[in-house]
Amino acid sequence: MDQRTLAYINLFAVLGSLEFLCRLEPAARQLIAGKKVSIGFSVKDGPSGTLWIEDGSCRMLPGVKGCQVLLPFSSCEKFNGLIDGTVTPIPVKGFHKLGFLLKNFTKLTDMLNLYLRPEPEKLKDETFFEKSTRLMLHLIVSAIAQIGNEDAIGRCSAGYIQDGSILLGVKGDLYCGIRAEGHRLFACHEQPEAYQAYMEFADLRLARQLFDGQVNAVACVGQGKIRIGGLISQVDNINRILDRVSLYLA
């Protein structure tokens, strides 16, 4: 596992999932209701991005230009420590927003962790299960893109992916995609208008079992629980990258 790749995943996939948490969970929106804050994360020899928060919604975008709060990290390892709770950063800009960081933002990330690393008992609640699984799909799509662009093995697979889009989703429910352009991958959090290949799960429960490593994808294809089609080489190479997602998100 490469710490630099993990930093890209933690910034754009994990913290990037806050956008979808706020769409799915009213309690998350309430934490940032009426707030307008931009938090920049700058990692030496790694990624940089800003979480733009405004009145109950948020979005992670590349770069730190114009951010109100700036959190610098001297290495990818230090930034990854923020995500696993072993590092507490000190802002070099935006001290007046410290209260928001320590209270609202910390509660928001704690809620995200609750959904992304749920206790088994929590998943017995159908509403929580659905929100958690939907959030996981968004996270995994973003992680696939970061691994395909930054991880050495992931880049090898991305090198074989032709320009175009691959559809990933749950039948009749939630669809996302991966767009390839010049052998770089980009996460799409809505159904692509056109796509060359697709992988479709029968339902949310199957998707969750696959995410948690409880079922074998090849067996599910044989059983008709996972449908694949189009340019199969595209799906095959996305699957190779998907295999590395569990390594980074474990």
Description:
There is one protein chain. The chain is an alpha+beta fold and 250 residues long. The protein folds into 2 domains: 3-116, Nonspecific Lipid-transfer Protein, Chain A, CATH 3.30.1050; 126-249, SCP2 sterol-binding domain (Nonspecific Lipid-transfer Protein, Chain A). It has 10 helices and 9 strands. The chain has helices at 3-14, 18-24, 26-31, 76-84, 98-116, 126-150, 152-158, 204-211, 217-222, 232-249; strands spanning 36-43, 48-54, 57-62, 69-73, 164-170, 175-181, 184-188, 197-201, 226-230. It has a 5-stranded mixed sheet with strand order 7-6-5-8-9. A hairpin with a 4-residue loop joins β5 (164-170) and β6. The longest helix has 25 residues, at 126-150. The mean pLDDT is 94.
Count of individual domains:
2
Low-confidence stretches: none
Radius of gyration from the alpha-carbon trace, in angstroms = 18 Å
Shape: globular
What is the name of the CATH superfamily of the largest domain? Answer: SCP2 sterol-binding domain
Which band does the percent of strand residues land in? 15-25%
Distance between the termini: 11 Å
Attribute tags:
250 residues, alpha+beta, Nonspecific Lipid-transfer Protein, Chain A, 10 helices
Question: Topology of this structure?
Answer:
Layout: H1 3-14, H2 18-24, H3 26-31, E1 36-43, E2 48-54, E3 57-62, E4 69-73, H4 76-84, H5 98-116, H6 126-150, H7 152-158, E5 164-170, E6 175-181, E7 184-188, E8 197-201, H8 204-211, H9 217-222, E9 226-230, H10 232-249
Parallel strand pairs: 1-4, 5-8
Antiparallel strand pairs: 1-2, 2-3, 5-6, 6-7, 8-9
Helix pairs in contact: 1-4, 1-6, 6-7, 6-8, 6-10, 7-10
